Amino acid sequence: MTIVTRRTILVPYTDYLESDFLMLNVCAKNRKHMNGPHTLATARRLFQTILSDSKFYAMAALDLRTRDYMGHIFIERGAESEGEIGYIFDKQYWNKGIATEVLRAFIPDAVHTLGIKRLEANVDTDHASSIRLLSKLGFEQYGQAKDEHGPYYQFQSTFGVPENENSAHGSLSSPAYLDNSRHQALKTQTHK
């Protein structure tokens, strides 16, 4: 299945995309807020895991026009109907709205496909653009933690659950996000 947005096409991973995935994940700048760069060996193992482990629902984000590799998005399924979302885009696509466009298309599809009711995300406390992105997508911060890589915020969003009336943000499960006709610039097509 593929998902098409105004500027991108999201495709399932194949062996053909391995070198692009490796280059993205060994770059120190791309992974600055993701616990540092992978080595070539660890990036290769991660790619093989994404291809073979059914708990990962991952797609490559490609430029719709040129088919250049732009980034990686995934959900790692957890217990029952929960998952953790992650994303990384090449530095040349930062601050252009690409991540917003891609995640607005990917999340509803993945939530529906996987039956996700609760999605979590962890973000370095100093990664302001990712914090803004998650807030824009309806995620709410519920905690803060620290590990060997430093402090991070914990975010969550729920789907198919009545929204908290006190919430300051709309959720991607709310009609405003599921009705793509209200977001002409971000209208998506899903192809199976």
UniProtKB/TrEMBL annotation:
Disordered: region residues: 164-192
Superkingdom, taxonomy of origin: Bacteria
GO molecular function: acyltransferase activity, transferring groups other than amino-acyl groups
EC class of the enzyme, as a word: transferase
Regions of compositional bias (Polar residues) in chain numbering: 164-174
InterPro entries (alphabetical): Acyl_CoA_acyltransferase, GNAT_dom, N-acetyltransferase
Keywords per UniProt: Acyltransferase, Transferase
EC number(s) stated in the UniProt entry for this protein: 2.3.1.1
SUPFAM superfamilies assigned: Acyl-CoA N-acyltransferases (Nat)
Domain N-acetyltransferase residue range list: 9-140
Classification via PANTHER family: GNAT FAMILY, PUTATIVE (AFU_ORTHOLOGUE AFUA_3G00765)-RELATED-RELATED (PTHR43792), N-ACETYLTRANSFERASE DOMAIN-CONTAINING PROTEIN (PTHR43792:SF1)
Full protein name: N-acetylglutamate synthase
